[in-house]
Amino acid sequence: MAGRVTxxxxxxxxxxxxxxxxxxxxxxxRAAGGxxxxxxxxxxxxxxxxxxxxxxxxxxxxxxxxxxxxVMRQSERADAYRAALDRLAGMGLTYPCRCSRxxxxxxxxxxxxxxxxxxxxxxxxxxxxxxxxxxGPEDTIRLDMAAALRLAGPLRFRETGPAREGWxxxxxxxxxxxxxxxxxxxxxxxxxxxxxxxxxxQGVTEVVRGEDLFEATAIHVLLQRLxxxxxxxxxxxxxxxxxxxxxxxxxxxxxxxxTYRAEGRSPAEIRAMVGL
Length: 276
Ligand code: GLU
What we know:
With 276 residues, the chain is an alpha/beta fold. The protein contains 10 helices and 12 strands. Helix 7 crosses helix 8.
């Protein structure tokens, strides 16, 4: 047995903070005896910077973590995302959408009651009748969720994280997530499509990440089934919060690993700070 394969998948949009350190350390701990991979999630070129990527490598090495090379970068994987999107399109499960956020809000008659899912407001389906034959470069591509669920049949996945350990059914995503975006204008993919294609390409057997992404997992399992990809286990870990109970964000420079390093803290102290 080759052992478990996990991955840490940060976006180089700012400094890594204590929350990232906890996530990365959990990824490497879960891979003990197996392989922990690094993946740079840089599809949003306007927000990602090479200097943040360099800082990620540096901070992770400082924590004592190492990974096989080459590192996968999402910005270099457009062809793989295109192939997956074409496959879903060929199955008749996608349509082009031209709605702006304002259009979506306007289409929901009572926005204050408009349900939200993992991607925010649930899309009301305005463009669902449009055909892929009329898709242009300005269009977002969405998944026809009801059709996708019908085709996939019942689905479930195994969670190994302490808060929700056990098997979970994929529920009625047409109501709880709606027609999620598979490809955003200008990006050629969305987070959901890229993460599923990349986890399979990297041979990931356990996806380790923050519990804020638990709700998105059913979407990923559905895409894995539709694309004939293996369904890994999932391990969603707690989030590191500040004294006010707020989740740490990239702009919280005070909690940046670089700041602790500059203050002379050790990797062991970082571990202790995040409760490991
Ligand atoms: N890139 C995502 C983040 O920085 C992680 C995605 C994932 O682990 O699935 O939050």
